[in-house]
């Protein structure tokens, strides 16, 4: 079983099956709208914003990548807390930008080092909350201070927001001129294979991202399924997210009983510091349990990241861990 990528382990949303069967074939012969008009309308309704506030991309990866290219020139600094989502420094390098990691604050909350991030002078600061891979969240006070004092754009990646208790920062995207919040259909909505993500921000920010994005980033099928999920499957998504969170905390109890101390998490995963994580990860894989291995994470050291979903999967992971530790 694969617990390595923080996707929805309960599967894909119910309306996807109907849309693919009833509409999928008919849609194949025609182009989608260049800038995803149907998807934008559905996102705007779901997020409570105007269509002008919405951009979309081939996964939120693409929205992040386009934002880096929209707001930065080769050689510019992009700052981000460390550790965080590994694709950000990778995208930065691909666009000849300078990635500058700023360690999360020491201590159990792992909040943002606001002064450290501001001191980089970056024209774009990336913040992921809940943060991948730690699962920890940025405090509202720290994030608002960062947004108020940043010299440029603050991109807030909320790929895991559906699992938080009140850690939603869409309000900042609605009210601040320099905030772009990115979200995805890949995690709680169970549609990682579709490659659909979106961003919300002031119309002028969104327009810049769209210029870097270019047209035709979605397939007709991807757009149709994402629209139906956002329109019809929100209760299903919320039920899956609630169960993933409940099982995350149950898993935490089981890990503690093994002498491990996972970080506090508001995502659908737990980061568990474990010495010799590579060896442990390989031994788990031999038992058909695939988790994500991290070595030497700043402030954490070696760790395993375990995606959370149905309890039988969590229980099998615990059993395998008990055998290999
Ligand atoms: N942001 C974070 C924090 C993620 O963990 C991921 C996926 N691993 C993404 C963005 C990208 O997701 P997608 O491109 O599937 O929307």
Topology record:
Layout: H1 14-27, H2 37-47, E1 54-57, H3 59-71, E2 77-82, H4 87-94, E3 98-103, H5 114-119, E4 124-128, H6 140-149, E5 153-157, H7 170-175, E6 179-184, E7 197-200, H8 203-213, H9 220-232, H10 234-257, E8 269-273, H11 277-286, E9 292-297, E10 301-307, H12 311-324
Parallel strand pairs: 2-3, 2-4, 4-5, 5-6
Antiparallel strand pairs: 1-7, 6-7, 8-10, 9-10
Helix pairs in contact: 1-9, 2-9, 3-4, 3-8, 10-12
The structure holds 4'-deoxy-4'-aminopyridoxal-5'-phosphate.
Could you walk me through the main structural features you see in this protein, from its secondary elements to its overall organization?
There is one protein chain. This protein has 325 residues and is of the alpha/beta class. The chain has two domains: 14-232, Type I PLP-dependent aspartate aminotransferase-like (Major domain) (Aspartate Aminotransferase, domain 2, 3-Layer(aba) Sandwich); 235-324, Alpha-Beta Complex (Aspartate Aminotransferase, domain 1), CATH 3.90.1150.10. 43% of the residues lie in helices and 17% in strands. It has helices at residues 14-27, 37-47, 59-71, 87-94, 114-119, 140-149, 170-175, 203-213, 220-232, 234-257, 277-286, 311-324; strands spanning 54-57, 77-82, 98-103, 124-128, 153-157, 179-184, 197-200, 269-273, 292-297, 301-307. The strands form two sheets. Strands 1-7-6-5-4-2-3 form a seven-stranded mixed beta sheet, with helices on both faces. It has a three-stranded antiparallel beta sheet with strand order 8-10-9. Helix 4 (87-94) links the parallel strand 2 (77-82) and strand 3 (98-103). Helix 1 packs antiparallel against helix 9 (220-232), helix 3 (59-71) crosses helix 4 and helix 3 crosses helix 8. The longest helix has 24 residues, at 234-257.
């Amino acid at each position: 079983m694969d617990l390595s990528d923080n996707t929805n382990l309960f599967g894909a949303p119910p309306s996807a099956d109907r849309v693919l069967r009833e509409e999928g074939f008919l849609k194949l012969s025609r182009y989608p709208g260049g800038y995803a008009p149907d998807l934008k309308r559905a996102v705007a309704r779901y997020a409570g914003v105007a269509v002008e506030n919405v951009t979309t991309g081939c996964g939120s990866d693409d929205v992040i990548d386009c934002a880096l290219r929209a707001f930065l020139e080769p050689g510019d600094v992009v700052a981000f807390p460390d550790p965080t989502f590994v694709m950000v420094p990778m995208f930065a390098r691909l666009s000849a930008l300078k990635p500058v990691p700023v360690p999360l604050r020491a201590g159990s909350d792992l909040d943002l080092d606001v002064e450290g991030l501001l001191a980089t002078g970056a024209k774009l600061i990336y913040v992921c909350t809940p943060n991948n891979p730690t699962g920890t969240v940025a405090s509202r006070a720290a994030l608002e201070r960062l947004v108020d004092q940043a010299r440029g754009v603050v991109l807030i990646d909320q790929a895991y927001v559906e699992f938080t208790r009140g850690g939603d920062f869409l309000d900042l995207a609605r009210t601040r001129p320099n905030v772009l919040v990115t979200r995805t259909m890949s995690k709680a909505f169970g549609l990682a294979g579709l490659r659909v993500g979106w961003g919300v921000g002031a119309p002028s920010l969104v327009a810049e991202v769209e210029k870097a994005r270019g047209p035709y980033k979605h397939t007709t099928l991807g757009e149709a399924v994402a629209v139906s999920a956002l329109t019809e499957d929100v209760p299903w998504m919320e039920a899956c997210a609630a169960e993933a969170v409940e099982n995350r905390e149950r898993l935490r109890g089981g890990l503690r009983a093994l002498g491990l101390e996972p970080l506090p998490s508001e995502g659908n995963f737990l980061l568990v510091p474990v010495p010799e994580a590579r060896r442990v990860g390989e031994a788990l894989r031999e038992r058909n349990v695939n988790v994500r291995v991290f070595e030497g994470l700043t402030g954490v050291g070696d760790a395993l990241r375990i995606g959370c979903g149905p309890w039988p999967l969590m229980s099998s992971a615990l059993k395998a861990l008990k055998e290999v530790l």
